[in-house]
């Protein structure tokens, strides 16, 4: 296939997939190529699906094929991290742009796409168990991923915190949003001005090790991955019966976010909370678990406290930010 410039058949795609993804794994009794894969059974699994669609979730004008392949899998792995679990396998649904569309990809571009996805899969020992292919008007990726609890056997969930619990995050907030907006305005040139933000948007790193460590700490009461911004995800996390007092200083905001908001006359704290695609972990823990957090996750940042009222506040002022909504109209 090295001499081919295009992939013209389903068999071409399957050969390229087999090139990058091993078809044998300790968890697969029957691999790709049959009507179904057969996997070794587990006592319980966590499972999730994410869609990654061209011109909705990414643009080819500044996402390389490798960026697309990496991020499509990374955002799914992050959901497993948010449950305090480890990923154990995934399946891939792919909408392939036809040759008459403006999204058509050459064989070398598909090679980059699968190479980046398989590199991330190998990093987490993830077998690709199968999937489906279809022609379509634009590039689309749908990944279903599953995983299992770590050594503790715990699965961390939303709406399991209580008033008085400490709220914390593992990871940076606001960076991917700054990267997205800079790329939309400046294209690839944005990387020169805001390299950390652009990289955070194009190549998110799932925090599996952090999630597994959180599940090992008994005083950690829950966690989730932040994908729609803290302003929207925080109410989902604490539930309708609780509120939160957030305390976040400007010094805790990543450098590229401070630079981008200063360059564009934006409120850095509000910008950080609106976020989106942060793929940081939000957690809640009892105050007596803070020493364990400091020991095992020294990079975590305390951002506030769960309250018995349903109100949200930021640094003592009422907070009324809605965050990202997948079905809202975005200008």
Automatic annotation (TrEMBL):
Pathway: Cofactor biosynthesis; thiamine diphosphate biosynthesis; thiamine diphosphate from thiamine phosphate: step 1/1
Top-rank taxon: Bacteria
Domain PurM-like N-terminal: 33-146
Annotated positions binding Mg(2+) 5: 228
SUPFAM superfamilies named among the record's database cross-references: PurM C-terminal domain-like, PurM N-terminal domain-like
Binding site for Mg(2+) 1: 49-50, 132
HAMAP family to which the protein is assigned, alphabetical: TMP_kinase
Protein name: Thiamine-monophosphate kinase
């Amino acid at each position: 296939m090295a001499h081919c410039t295009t992939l013209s058949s389903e068999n071409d795609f399957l050969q390229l997939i087999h090139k990058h993804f091993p078809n044998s794994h300790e968890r697969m009794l029957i691999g790709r190529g049959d009507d179904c894969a057969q996997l070794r059974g587990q006592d319980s699994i966590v499972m999730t699906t994410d869609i990654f669609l061209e011109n909705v979730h990414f643009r080819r004008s500044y996402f390389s094929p490798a960026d697309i392949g990496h991020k499509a899998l990374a955002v799914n792995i992050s959901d497993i991290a948010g449950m305090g679990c480890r990923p154990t396998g995934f399946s891939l649904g792919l909408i392939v742009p036809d040759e008459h569309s403006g999204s058509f990809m050459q064989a070398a571009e598909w090679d980059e796409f699968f190479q980046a996805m398989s590199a991330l899969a190998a990093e987490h020992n993830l077998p690709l168990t199968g999937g489906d292919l279809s022609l379509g008007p634009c590039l689309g990726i749908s990944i279903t991923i599953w995983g299992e609890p770590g050594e503790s056997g715990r699965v961390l969930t939303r709406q399991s915190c209580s008033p008085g619990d400490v709220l914390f995050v593992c990871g940076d907030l606001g960076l991917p949003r700054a990267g997205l907006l800079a790329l939309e305005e400046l294209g690839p040139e944005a990387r020169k001005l805001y390299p950390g933000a652009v990289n955070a948007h194009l190549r998110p790193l799932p925090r599996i090790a952090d999630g597994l460590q959180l599940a090992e700490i008994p005083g950690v009461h829950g966690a989730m991955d932040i994908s729609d911004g803290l302003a929207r995800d925080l109410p989902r996390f604490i539930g309708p019966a609780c509120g939160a007092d957030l305390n976040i200083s400007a010094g805790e905001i990543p450098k590229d976010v401070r630079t981008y908001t200063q360059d564009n006359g934006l409120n850095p704290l509000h910008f950080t909370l609106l976020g989106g695609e942060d793929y940081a972990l939000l957690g809640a823990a009892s105050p007596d678990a803070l020493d364990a957090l400091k020991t095992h996750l020294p990079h975590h940042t305390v951002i506030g406290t769960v309250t018995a009222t349903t109100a949200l506040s930021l640094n003592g002022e009422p907070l009324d930010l809605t965050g990202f909504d997948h079905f809202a109209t975005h200008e």
